[in-house]
Amino acid sequence: xxxxxxxxxxxxxxxxxxxxxLRLALILTTLMAAPxxxxxxxxxxxxxxxxxxxxxxxxxxxxxxxxxxxxxxxPLGWRLVLADGETTFADIEGPVRDWxxxxxxxxxERAADTPPGLRPRRWRLxxxxxQLPADDWRRLRVSLRWRRHEAA
Length: 152
Known about the structure:
By secondary structure, this protein is of the alpha+beta class. The protein has helices at residues 17-36, 41-60, 134-151, and strands at residues 11-12, 68-74, 77-82, 87-99, 102-109, 122-128. It has one domain (11-152). 38% of the residues lie in helices and 28% in strands. It has a six-stranded antiparallel β-sheet. α1 (17-36) packs antiparallel against α2. It is elongated and about 60 Å long.
C-alpha cells in the first residue's frame, strides 16, 4: 500500500456556489437565444413556455453531488454516505478528469453490496473546489492522481 493511500478523512460535501452561478448563466444564455432566433411569434411563444418549464426543472433538479453527503477512502474502497443516511462501498470507475477548480469522476457500487437481482448503482460527480475545505480538496486530488499511477 502506498503512502498516499493513508489519507482517510471524511469528505463532507457542501453546495457549490460556482455550480449555481453556472446553471444561472446557462439559463440566461438560452433565454437570450429565443428572441435572437427571428422565429415567427406563433412558434416562439410555445417555445418560450417550454423553455421556462425546462429552465425551472434544471434550476430545481439536484446534481449527483447532492445525492451524496460524504465519502471516505478506506482499505475496502470508498465509503459513500447517501442523502438518506445509507452507507455503501464503491470503487472509482472510469477516467478521472482533473482541472483547476473542478474534478469529474464516477463511483460504482461494489457487486458484493448490491442487492441480488439489481444492477450496481453509479454516481457521476462534478466536484467544484468550493464544495470541500482546501486541505481536503488537495488531498482528494492527490489521492485520485495516485490511483491513476497505481493502476498502471
